[in-house]
Amino acid sequence: MAEGERQTPSDSSEDAPPTTQNFIIPKKEIHTVPDMGKWKRSQAYADYIGFILTLNEGVKGKKLSFEYKVSEAIEKLVALLNTLDRWIDETPPVDQPSRFGNKAYRTWYAKLDQEAENLVATVVPTHLAAAVPEVAVYLKESVGNSTRIDYGTGHEAAFAAFLCCLCKIGVLRVDDQIAIVFKVFNRYLEVMRKLQKTYRMEPAGSQGVWGLDDFQFLPFIWGSSQLIDHPYLEPRHFVDEKAVNENHKDYMFLECILFITEMKTGPFAEHSNQLWNISAVPSWSKVNQGLIRMYKAECLEKFPVIQHFKFGSLLPIHPVMSSC
Length: 324
Known about the structure:
By secondary structure, the protein is mainly alpha-helical. The chain contains 15 helices and four strands. The chain starts with a helix and ends in a 13-residue tail after the last strand. Keywords: Cytoplasm, Isomerase, Rotamase.
């Protein structure tokens, strides 16, 4: 159960945050490989994975077109992402000799760096204003690295952490679960794809064809959950162009496949070997379980990814409290 679920705030938006809460600017705590043990034992890890799994359960068997509640907080988050999208249009790529890593991305990022707290303040009610600087750090971390002009699963994890923090302070509620994935995370994906295409961003620490995808992981987890018990779409169908074209608007997983085939050339089995292997798994529930295991092993338990993760009061490095 995600932390945001356990601490469901009451319906009154006037409720003040817990008086014991001292918000802090998140910082890196994992500096060496042996520090990874601290991460795996941390409250942050337990809350983060709990959040991912709660959302995984929430979208099970549901199409993107499924009718769900859209709260004011969800609308505000979508508006925030629309602003980031508009800034891409206002910051066209510059002419430069190298094909990848367009330097205009740095101009775009500088704007976010400057405006992140103002953007987050549009989502967070005034009585929780003290949380804004802490939560805004995760937003800034979620869009790629401005030095290397790259993007990867660590940045994606920062966005999930951003949403998790909003749940922990009560901005997002239990009944927002489906909208968090289908409306907010899906919009985030669209903006990230636009960033990747516009500025030709490099994959961060790409494992080449042995990774699941150059940039994302979570939409494959949640997207496979959506397809559990589907009446006719089986894992083998996602390598079938017709099946993808006909169903991608309903399922995140297929939308990801479509994006990969647009961006890459050559046989699918060669450019996306891991995904090709997954298409042989007999059921979506087995795909989903396997992807969760793979996400823990390939992303959450890899030092090159987690060394960049930041810890604060909402996602703390201290070990899991036994009372939880």
